[in-house]
Write a structure and sequence with these properties.
The complex is a heterodimer of chains A (306) and B (328). By secondary structure, chain A is an all-alpha fold. Chain A is 71% helix and 3% strand. Classes of the chains: A mainly alpha (306), B mainly alpha (328).
Chain lengths: 306, 328
Amino acid sequence: MMLAATFSGKLFAQDLLNGVSLGAVFALLGLGVVLIYKSSGVLNFAHGSMAMFSTYVYFQLTQSFHGMPVVVAAAIAVGIGAVIGAASYLGVFRRMQDAGLLAKVIASLAVAGVLQGGAAFLWRNASQARVPQQFPESSLRIGGVGLGWQEVGTIAITVFAGLALIMILRRTTFGIALRATAQNRTAARLLGVRETRVATTSWAIGGALAALAGVLVIPLAVLTVYSMIGYMVRGFVAAVVGGFVSLPAALAGGFVLGAAQESLKATPVEQLSSVFAGLAIAVLLLTRVERFFALDQELRALQELG
Amino acid sequence: MKNRLPVILALVGAGLVLPPLILDSTWNATLSLALIYALMGLSVVVLTGFVGQLSLMPATFVGIGAYASGRLVTNLATPFWGAVPLAAAVVVPFALVIGMIALRLKGLYLAIMTLVFANVVEQFLFTQDWFVGKQHVVDAPRPHLGGIDFASDKSYYVLVYVAVAAVLLLTWNLSRSRTARACYAVRDNEDAAQAWGINVAKYKLLAFALSGLIAGFAGALYGHWLEAVSTGGQRPLFGLEFSLTIVFFTIVGGVRSIWGPVLGAAVWVVLVKRLLAGSPDGVNIAISIFGAVVLLTMLYRPAGLIAWIGDAWRRLRRPRAQVAAGEA
């Protein structure tokens, strides 16, 4: 009886759809985390801060130059994200190649702290900022449910970026060099892979994807120094699905996590929605789900690296 | 070396008596906060410095302790003296759950999981009316004992000083025991420790429980220092930022020494509450500075500031030892 009273099919479909668009953001962040981890063995806890900082740049550009098309501002912000990513690798993590796992984690937290404090200081008069959408504010209606164009765009961009990245890793020289580094660092170096170049490129792409995620999702929320933390955490959960080395698993994991988390809101156990990420990560880690999606060799090589 | 004990006792006594006598109450509040922060950092030392496990949720445990103590005093009329230890004990089961999961996870995965759990507790537990009260603010009054009122900043400093000194002394004692040596073995090489017959799981769980207990105790003292615990609204009080702060000043001070967080917390609190107190962005500036200092520490001196002091101390003592040897 209770079930029938509180459950509505239309509501469920709407929440599911919202979840897919939210999941796209988790997937975008997860993809960057995987790329960075594969190339340098660093789990980038500064990922959310990079996204947040770039989104503040986007906010500043749209504020300062009224004539500038938002798409151009977004593109510049994504470029800034790439610069932040590359600079963190060249400035910090390249020097820590042989450091322990905890040292790298703490260093990435420190980078997060610098970006977080820096943004809070630079944009102290905009601690709660509203940023414009890149897509029309109207929405796409299918049957009884609707989805804003911003969300539709986010899903499309994520699917495109994810598939492009997977193809790059499969087909290009850069992708092969990256996979070789992830599997056996010494052998890759002996075969002439330029580790610094591969890792810097990966960090740049990761930073750009983080910025993209922030620029796409924040128009639907409020921009604060903290607003990307929750997304980053769920991006990590997506990356965990593939043991931090599988891009397809991170892409799919993000979408599934978003859809599952939001669709819970339409069920009688809606309270579970906010803790779902916690339950999911505990289950994923304890069952070692990454075994099914990642090469054993890569998992082991990267764990030894740490 | 025979005459060292009286000197140490005199220094400890001076730390207890002098600040309330010669400093104003703002400074006393600052110093008690530094001591409470030192305890929060100590919970990181017990976990990261002793058994090599990195948790990114120290502030979550602190928050649970702060709320629990406030609720016990305000809503259940528990006396302060019972509420604070009880609040510390409340955190232990939480810490043990994390610890039990940690037994199956290696470093990196543990760090992520604590990050996710911290976020979940913040969004779930710290938003529930039954835990944080209707207005999300819980009163946490300071106590009386007989005729003594600990409400003023000066008297509360004395209380905090005694409590923190006791915890530091117990932990220092522990850090030189057989138990601690087993923990260090687990930290340095888990497989080797296992091969030596050390029960790795037991020592990890012990460290988690102790870390939770210390964090909860610090949280309870912090709650009563604030006198009203709130979630902080737009700027989450017990969120990732606070956890980062605790980890940062502990690393800067020195994560393998129990005096590291004392030093780190003192630097942090004086920087934020005094030097940058005039600026509304003091905390943000301080986090940026500390982030940069943590990077420098990790790159050049992972043992932290306390190691510089250790070096200076040895340099001071060496000539004296040589003189003594010459006379004999």
